[in-house]
Fold this sequence. Notes:
It is built from five helices and four strands.
Amino acid sequence: MNTDPVILIRLKSNVFFDFSSKKINTSGSTIIRHLVSDVLVASPSYKKISIVGHTDNVGTAENNLRLSKKRSDIVVEELQKQLRRLGDTANGVHSFQIESIGVGESQPIEHTEREMASQANRRLEIFLSPSSIALHKTEKYIQCLHHWDDTAPESDLADCFLEYMVIQE
């Protein structure tokens, strides 16, 4: 059984995109290039990658969902481009399973109407995992945690962990 942990990299979306833009900026391209060269090549067991796009609640839910999906698609395209630069080898693009997920405003990490909360909710999450099962469980765990706000009892948060993160053999 592979014991490598699932890695979550959470970045503000303005690191990759200018406000309301669907075009990846220079810093976003640089981050992805380093993700490939410094993380994925150095840790070949991480073959499952999910890019999850999030927005704040400004605008309609439908537009936010569309924007988050488009942005995650663009990051996946850039990631695939960087992997292709390595060549079609054991660490090339075909040896990775990469998915793009857009969740819009449905999973805020801040549950207030303040502008700072909106900034925190505009983000990209990159999940790296050695297996699809571990990746799926981690994504469900994160979604479960997003369901609760800061006033949730610790028992509810523990239930999330027990339901999704305890490995049963």
